[in-house]
């Protein structure tokens, strides 16, 4: 079992036990499927319903039908087992990217020190190749080789 961080429960919504989850997770459509199991405080909870409201993921959990029954989950971190995501070969989690080696067109090698979001849709890699460099993740100058666990970055690092 390999848990993957999805987000945090911020509050409840309504009186029927619906929870608001703030999440920047890339593959939300795979994670928040009805029937999937969320892990909160090392306990599994099955997703009964899911919808998106004002940028937050709204879920109800099986066997919880009232706001008073879910109050103990507020401010808790939410995880899911990686196996439940059924990711395709080219779908890579941020946690997995940290293990990838970075190469430049000129042959320099480096590592990814951190991945963060400059905005909700702009993922940035903090790469160390002789010095620290910030690289936008979806750059056309970047090629990802999943088999070799490498990221090849052209010209942007040569400046």
Structure commentary:
This protein has 159 residues and is mostly beta strands. The protein folds into 2 domains: 3-85, Beta Barrel (Elongation Factor Tu (Ef-tu), domain 3), CATH 2.40.30.60; 94-157, SH3 type barrels, CATH 2.30.30. 8% of the residues lie in helices and 50% in strands. It has 3 helices and 12 strands. The chain has helices at 28-31, 67-70, 94-97, and strands at residues 3-13, 18-22, 37-40, 43-53, 56-61, 77-81, 101-104, 109-119, 122-129, 131-136, 142-145, 150-153. The chain has a 6-stranded antiparallel β-barrel. It has a 6-stranded mixed sheet with strand order 10-9-8-7-12-11, with no helix packed on it. The protein is elongated. The protein starts with a strand and ends in a 6-residue tail after the last strand. The relative contact order is 0.17. The model has no long low-confidence stretch (mean pLDDT 91).
């Amino acid at each position: 079992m390999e848990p993957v961080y999805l987000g945090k429960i911020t509050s409840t919504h309504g009186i029927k036990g619906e929870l608001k989850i703030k999440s920047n997770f890339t593959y939300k459509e795979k994670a928040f499927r009805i029937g999937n199991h969320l892990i909160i405080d090392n306990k599994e909870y099955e997703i009964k319903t899911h919808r998106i409201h004002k940028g937050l993921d709204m879920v109800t959990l099986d066997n919880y039908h009232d706001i008073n029954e879910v109050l103990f989950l507020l401010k808790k971190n939410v995880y899911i087992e990686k196996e439940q995501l059924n990711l395709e070969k080219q779908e890579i989690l941020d946690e997995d990217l940290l293990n990838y080696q970075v190469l430049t067109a000129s042959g320099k090698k480096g590592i990814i020190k951190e991945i963060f979001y400059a905005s909700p849709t702009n993922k940035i890699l903090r790469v160390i190749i002789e010095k620290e460099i910030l690289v936008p993740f979806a750059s056309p100058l970047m090629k990802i080789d999943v088999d070799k666990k490498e990221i090849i970055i052209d010209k942007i690092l040569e400046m």
